[in-house]
Write a structure and sequence with these properties.
Structural class: alpha/beta
Number of strands: 26
Strand content: 35-45%
Number of domains: 3
Number of helices: 4
Low-confidence stretches: 1-10
Radius of gyration: 37 Å
Order of helices and strands: HHEEEEEEEEEEEEHEEHEEEEEEEEEEEE
Helix content: 25-40%
């Protein structure tokens, strides 16, 4: 009996041991299945990351390639534009007997090179048999072998007065920062903005009038609520700026100063005619009379320049380099900055008020500006006098 009991006990122990083993085996198999699932998920995650990484790398590479291509085209385009500028400058200054060559053969060709690339250009006149016109074709090859050509149709500039019919004339895109206003004269004339490019208002605090207008060869990002929708003109043909003919102004000058000149109350009283300065000009103070101050260099307005008799006094400031007005200043008169080969800039820094007009290749505003149109300079010898100049009327860009 004891033996049987002993065997039964022994058998139960064996069964218990076998059950524990089976439990351990099931646990191990479960761990293996769990580890297999984790491994599979890890492989899938790595594959996904690899695909995403490859996609991002490709997008980055494509973006860099596109940016590089745009830079190459911009370089070539600038070179081609310089060929057009050179042709227009030669037509104006009659360099290299270009006008005589065109009259004789109807064709002129030239070329030049920069470290950035080479440019060749031709001028054909007349264009399509129309007198006083020409076609300029400029072809550029950049140092990175990008090729672009520009065709421009140009004609004699007969009536430059449109440049002076608005409060602000910018021969490039115009950005108006912060608050400010552009207003017409008491007769409702001249309260308009013109830009050869887009007009950008930084904010919505700019004030105009219901007699004002916005004229742009591009688009405008905002319109002051006072301006009627019918007075917003976008994608218009560019209006050319008349050139400051320095030789002409020197030849008709009332007085010529050799070297830099400073104007103040003492020498601004009773000024008349053309004041020609071979150098830079600094000025502030009250003036009387009717005069054009022409500087071959820069003009810097360091304080207010005010008309003693606003109804009769007239002043125009002309520079082919730059004009800067700073501080809390008011200027009565025309501010005109225009270069032939290099853009001339007018900078308004501070709380500036102009009773007249601002015309420049580039207009930069840093602060609050108010421009109230006034044409008191009517009758003064403004730019557009002197040599006959050419102005482009259309252009076309194409890739080679």
């Amino acid at each position: 009996m004891r033996e049987m009991c002993g065997r039964v006990k022994g058998d139960n122990s064996a069964v218990g041991a076998n059950g524990a083993e089976r439990q351990l085996l099931r646990s191990l198999r479960g761990d293996r299945r769990s580890r297999g699932s984790v491994f599979l998920l890890a492989i899938i995650a790595l594959a996904t990351l690899l695909i995403l990484g490859t996609s991002l790398l490709q997008m980055t590479t494509n973006g860099l390639a596109d940016a590089s291509e745009r830079n190459k085209r911009a370089e070539a385009f600038s070179l081609a534009e310089s060929g057009v500028d050179m042709a227009l400058a030669k037509l104006y200054e009659d360099y290299d007997n270009i006008n005589e060559t065109l009259e004789t053969t109807g064709h002129y060709a030239s070329a030049f090179a920069f470290p950035e690339g080479s440019v060749s250009y031709t001028v054909a006149s007349p264009y399509n048999g129309i007198s006083d016109t020409c076609m300029i074709t400029s072809q550029a090859t950049s140092w990175r072998n990008e090729q672009i050509a520009i065709r421009v149709v140009a004609s004699f500039l007969r009536n430059p007065s449109r440049t002076f019919e608005g409060a602000i004339f910018s021969d490039s895109p115009l950005t108006l920062n912060g608050a400010g206003s552009v207003l017409p004269d008491e007769n409702g004339k001249g309260g308009q903005i013109y830009a050869n490019g887009n007009v950008s208002f930084q904010g919505t605090s700019f004030t105009m009038s219901n007699e004002g207008a916005i004229i742009t060869t591009g688009t405008t990002n905002w319109v002051p609520p006072q301006v009627p929708a019918t007075a917003v003109y976008q994608h218009v043909a560019p209006i050319p700026m008349p050139i400051i003919d320095l030789d002409y102004y020197e030849s008709i000058a009332t007085v010529v100063y050799n070297g830099n000149k400073t104007f103040n109350d003492a020498n601004l009283a009773g000024i008349n005619g053309v004041i020609f300065v071979k150098g830079d000009v600094k000025m502030s103070g009250n003036f009387s009379g009717q005069a054009v101050i022409v500087a071959t260099g820069k003009i810097q307005v360091t304080g207010s320049v005010l008309a003693t008799h606003p109804d009769t006094d007239a002043l125009a400031l002309l520079s082919p380099k730059s004009i800067k007005i700073a501080g809390n200043s008011r200027v009565d008169g025309l501010v005109y900055a225009h270069g032939v080969m290099v853009d001339a800039e007018t900078t308004l820094a501070g709380n500036i008020e102009v009773h007249g007009a601002i015309c420049a290749d580039v207009v930069v505003t840093n602060g609050s500006i108010t421009v109230i149109y006034d044409d008191v300079w009517d009758g003064l010898p403004l730019p557009g006098k002197g040599k006959t100049q050419w102005a482009q009327t259309s252009w076309e860009e194409f890739y080679l």
